[in-house]
Design goal:
90 residues; two-stranded antiparallel ribbon; 4 strands; 37% helix
């Protein structure tokens, strides 16, 4: 399962990018800056959709990463969590 950003409604605030534990959300620079979510890195955590001020992120259950991609994404999320916890201790 994955989330998708509607580029027509995206205001390029970057909150999805800043919140994503796997860094699946990234800026797309075309005629205007918008964000997109890399399906292979999405762990279906819903954090991006929760913080989006323009409500342009929707759940798309038909989009699914492969098991190997999901494991890679989960490992990245665990690593991000460990770094955050270590920084919080200081």
């Amino acid at each position: 399962m994955a989330y998708v950003i509607d580029s027509d409604q995206c205001i390029a605030c970057g909150w999805c990018r800043d919140t994503c534990p796997t860094q699946a959300a990234a800026g797309v620079f075309k005629q205007k800056v918008t964000y997109s979510i890399e399906v292979a890195m999405c762990i279906d955590c819903d954090l991006c959709a929760q913080v989006c001020p323009s409500d342009c992120i929707s759940h798309r259950p038909e989009l699914q990463p492969t098991p190997a991609q999901l494991e890679t994404a989960l490992a990245r999320a665990r690593s991000t969590n460990q770094r955050y916890n270590q920084a919080a201790r200081w």
